[in-house]
Amino acid sequence: MRIVLGIVFVLLTGITSANTLNNEESTRVLSDKMIQHFYKKEFQKGIDLAKPYWPLAPVELDNLVNTIKGQWPVVDQRFGEATGTDFIKTEKIGSSFIRYYYLHKFNNHAIYWQITFYKPKNEWKVNNLMYLDTLDPLYERVN
Predict the structure, then answer these.
(1) CATH match for 22-138 among 3.30.160, 3.10.450, 3.10.50, 1.10.10
(2) All residues at 6 or more sequence positions from 87 whose CB lies less than 8 Å from its CB, including other chains
(3) What is the rounded CA–CA span in Å between residue 35 and residue 112?
(4) d(Cα 56, Cα 43) in Å, to the nearest integer?
(5) Where are the domains of the chain?
(6) How far does the signal peptide extend, from start to end residue (predicted)?
């Protein structure tokens, strides 16, 4: 019995250590996957992907999902059917913060998702998620 428990423990610790974001590329992959789920209104699945990397209590993240689901009928009514997503840009603060912006397009308007990661030591953690319909921060000056 001890051998079986030892093997299960090793397997579980291997799974846990696999749930790390060791580099910027892994943060981008995670945020891309989250946006794919958000586009399909699979908010729980998108947040569930981030849970292992987000230092908030799972109940708080589930509350975030419920808030998004509660607000989404207004998005559907006001903006219409979703038509696609675009990755917009990356912003950084030194080597500790990285933020990705995604446009979520609808028939009548668009919103943007902003996903922020923080690296306090050696691993990245999800730090913030938000969506807004005010697109002003995304505009670039054209001369």
Answers:
(1) 3.10.450
(2) 32, 100, 101, 102
(3) 10
(4) 17
(5) 22-138
(6) 1-20
Sign of the four-CA dihedral 22, 24, 25, 26:
positive
Give tens-digit pLDDT for 82-123: 999 999 999 999 999 999 999 999 999 999 999 999 999 999
**C-alpha to C-alpha distance for 40 and 116, rounded to whole angstroms:** 21
Bridge partners for 103 per DSSP: 86, 112
Taken in order 22, 116, 140, 103, the sign of the CA dihedral is positive
**The token pair that represents 24 in the structure block:** 């910027």
Strand partners, 21: 124
Residues 6+ positions from 77 with CB-CB distance below 8 Å = none
